Amino acid sequence: PILASAHESSCIRLWSIQGNLMKELLPFSEHPSGPLTVLCTDISTKILFTGSKEGHIIRWNIASFLEDSRNRKNKIKEELYWRAHAAEVVDLFFEEEKNVVVTASIDGSVRLWHARTGYYFGYFGQARKFELSDTSRLILPSDVNDFSAIIKEESQHMEKKKVIYPLTLDRDK
């Protein structure tokens, strides 16, 4: 078992069930995601989704890390990043069977997204039926203008490191 916590600093912390910090990481997407407000995983805890105050969703692959967290080669991979809402994401749910992510925002909207691509299917309350099999039409909600970004495999996430910067006065500078 593992516990995950999302923080205002955009940091995600993974904890052992005994309360020991296992990993601390930050997103490395082009745009800062802002304070994290919600997270969820799939049933087997291989995929982690996070939602932010700025309306972003990030998909993380944590499977190899959880298999052997002591092996430094097993990394957590940030796989996908997209803007889901113009306002804060307050809830997030991953439906594995349909491969759909459901997001809810303080703006009152509840939206459906393809979990692997960030493709927008629509919102609850729309007149048309959800077409979950067609991901060829690229559409976006009216308040979002950024398409999803697939994170390259070789990209590395930023780990929070403690660095001490002593204050010294350099009169020449």
UniProtKB/TrEMBL annotation:
Residue stretches of each WD repeat: 82-118
Gene3D superfamilies per the UniProt record, alphabetical: YVTN repeat-like/Quinoprotein amine dehydrogenase
SMART domains documented for this protein: WD40
Cross-referenced InterPro entries: Beta-prop_IP5PC_F, WD-EF-hand_domain, WD40/YVTN_repeat-like_dom_sf, WD40_repeat_dom_sf, WD40_rpt
SUPFAM superfamilies tied to this protein: WD40 repeat-like
Keyword Transmembrane: no
Gene: Wdr64_1
Pfam families (UniProt xref): Beta-prop_IP5PC_F (PF23754)
Keyword flag Repeat: yes
Stated name of the protein: WDR64 protein
Annotated ranges, domain IP5PC-F beta-propeller: 27-114
UniProt entry keywords in alphabetical sequence: Repeat, WD repeat
